[in-house]
TrEMBL record:
SUPFAM superfamilies named in the record: Sialidases
InterPro entries: Sialidase_sf
Protein name as catalogued: BNR repeat-like domain-containing protein
Organism placement in taxonomy: Bacteria, Pseudomonadati, Balneolota, Balneolia, Balneolales
Database matches in PROSITE patterns: PROKAR_LIPOPROTEIN
Length: 402
């Protein structure tokens, strides 16, 4: 299943006007994460917001936690598990999903013997508000990397999960790294809230090793975005569609032609509302770092031309959300010794970008999260000091952009 196709783009339907607006009123608000917490993940449903995070316990162990934000307040945080055998990483961190009835699943990564990057995906399904024992969605037993999970609700008792799966790289030598027969793969499975794996799929047999994935559900099915990999080490963003039965052949979303013989650890971000889809990503092609985005009005069947959201100063680490038909991206830019967290609002005719805050450039900052509830944009990230980490949450009035 080597990649040769290029996604056809709709004709140029809009003019691009990029502008920097006044900074929005980004208001910090409290969250229940303790000191030495890190790597938040946000998931919004209806008017509720869920956040998962990792806490360091001081004894070498970590705790996996979550809480719900509703009606302007957080409920009591819950701890799912505590262990010292987890793989805790700035780019590959736990995630959480829910629907209108409540929490559906939360995932984390568990180390296994065999190497520093040997670990399994562990997914905790929730049923009737209670967590079940974790299950491993991949059926191989190789001591290889399995991670960068994305999940979405599929139906009343099923979730769809995708992940990067390193089973082909088992016992790979240094020389074999550039042989795609030993490459990372992208796989998927259905998981019931009762704790069963229903179906498994191979989506792509050669992908970039350690860039985050992104998954959404649309009326036309599911859509996954990820950083692909070709025999010439072109690592651009591809998508695949799931129609309820099978996954489509991978298609390159935009021909950046980024030739890089390593993983940039900088994946794409999808968001969908009805048939409106946005896909944002970072590329370093042509020594011109930039964040780009494409829009689709038909559930991801066709995309409009690529639009540059940020260039020259772009760091990436993109996230995306859609609220009431309004599209928003968050991303990082360089500024001397700091990173600048930006929000951009997109429509058919314009791009409006504003600064939210300055962050540490350290990897400990992780990937800032963006979600929308009611008329607020919510952002969360790991705040880094010389002695500790903490989770910072802020809200921005969406009306700033409208």
């Amino acid at each position: 299943m080597k990649k040769t196709s290029f996604l056809g783009i709709l004709p140029f339907l809009f003019l691009i006007y990029g502008c920097q607006s006044d900074s929005p009123s980004a208001t910090s608000f409290e969250n229940p994460a303790d000191l030495n917490s890190k790597f938040p993940y946000l998931y919004a449903t209806n008017n509720s917001l869920y956040m998962s995070w990792i806490s360091s316990n001081g004894d070498g162990s970590h705790s996996l936690n979550y809480a719900r934000y509703d009606g302007g307040a957080w409920d009591t945080p819950q701890t799912i598990a505590r262990d010292s055998s987890w793989f805790v990483n700035w780019a590959d961190f736990p995630s959480i999903i829910a629907d209108q009835n409540g929490l559906l699943a939360i995932h984390m990564l568990n180390k296994k013997p065999g190497g520093p990057y040997a670990y399994d995906v562990n997914i905790y399904p929730f049923q009737n508000g209670k967590s079940r024992s974790p299950l491993v969605p991949h059926t191989d037993s190789t001591a290889t990397e399995h991670g960068f999970v994305s999940m979405v609700p599929w139906d009343d008792d099923t979730i769809l999960a995708v992940w990067l799966d390193g089973r082909q790289s088992a016992n790979r030598t240094e020389e074999q790294y550039f042989d795609l027969d030993y490459a990372m793969t992208l796989r998927a499975a259905f998981i019931s809230t009762s704790g069963e794996i229903k179906d498994s799929f191979l989506i792509d047999d050669a992908v970039c090793d350690c860039c985050p994935t992104s998954l959404v559900k649309t009326p036309e099915g599911a859509l996954v975005a990820y950083r692909d990999r070709t025999e010439k080490e072109i690592r651009d963003i591809s998508i695949s569609r799931f129609d309820g039965t099978s996954w489509s052949d991978p298609r390159t979303i935009h021909k950046d032609n980024w030739n890089i013989r390593a993983c940039p650890v900088n994946g794409p971000a999808l968001a969908a509302q009805d048939s409106l889809v946005v896909l944002g990503w970072y590329t370093g092609a042509d020594d011109n770092p930039r964040v780009q985005a494409v829009l689709s009005q038909d559930g991801g069947n066709n995309f409009q031309d690529s639009r540059v959201i940020s260039d020259q100063k772009a760091i990436g680490r993109v996230d995306a959300t859609i609220q009431n038909g309004h599209i928003y991206l968050s991303f990082l830019e360089n500024s001397s010794d700091k990173a600048v967290l930006q929000i951009a609002s997109l429509d058919q005719n314009s791009i409006q970008s504003s600064t939210v805050d300055t962050l540490s450039k350290s990897r400990k900052t992780g990937f800032p999260q963006l979600e929308a509830i009611e008329d607020k944009l919510i952002l969360a990230w790991t705040a880094v000091s010389d002695t500790s980490t903490s989770i910072k949450t802020v809200q921005v009035n969406a009306s700033h952009f409208n």
